[in-house]
Amino acid sequence: MNWLKRMKVSTQLIAGFMIVAAIGALIGTEGVLKAAQINGMAATMYEREMVGLRHTAEANILSLSAARSIRAAFLSTTEDQRAQHLQDVARLFENTRNALNESGKLFVRQAGKDLVVETQATLGNYENSVKEVARLLQSQPLSESSPALIQLADVARPLADKLDESMSKLVERKNANADELNQETSQIYSRIRVLLISLTVGGVLAGIAIGLLLSRSLTRQLGGEPAHAAQIAARIAQGDLTVAIHTQANDRTSLMAAMQTMRDSLVGIVGEVRQGTDSIATASSQIAVGNQELSTRTEQ
After folding, report:
1. Pairwise CA distance, residues 259 & 236, whole Å
2. Residue by residue, what is the 3-state secondary structure of 27-52?
3. Whole-angstrom Cα Rg for the chain
4. pTM of the predicted structure, to 2 decimals
5. In Å, what is the CA distance from 132 to each residue of 87, 127, 129, 136, 247?
């Protein structure tokens, strides 16, 4: 630790505040990195999980619509109705495959990928089975028209289609809300990042500035290094009034200036005492000579 004692106080103060500022910078940097990590996780959650959920829900709705279309083909009373329903079945199965494929792209773990493959295989088997039903259906006679079939085809089926559309809109609305929240999260992260960076940089600069100001103020009050001031005080206490004390120009208030004034005063006092002692010694010598002369005359 001798190297630390040999350092100037100003250097020690600045180094100390720089260490504190560096710790603050480290904390700020870690905060920025963690905020970036949270933002990345939120973006991943939206892009991978929410979008994947949307495609999966869409595939499920389309498969249900395909099942309803094949049932409607069974109940068709005209060839045109049956042909239209069978075309709807083929179109809905194609859209179901596309939605399921898009969902599968967003699974990253092996268990999820295996489940997607299994679901695709099940969908393929189901589609082939429905195609076979459609092939056999084409050779069967049409259903006889009845009030129930008319009600089903003209009223219930359009309402079911409208319900599917409403369900799809609900899913799209939730996805739109999730997208807005994702964008808002990104904006919040951007603001937090700017704030953390600004506070970190400001803290570092403030630490350095405070260190400089304190070291300058302390050095100005002391007029020099504390160790040097202690050495001068020790030499003066030992009676060495010849010690040199260097102060800044126009320095009248620092500790070193006060010690210089004290030394000069002591030098003056010692000089006056010495001068008085010399005068007393001279007077004593003169008195002794006078006494000697008086004694000699008396003896004569």
Report:
1. 9
2. HHHHHHHHHHHHHHHHHHHHHHHHHH
3. 50
4. 0.48
5. 14, 9, 5, 6, 107
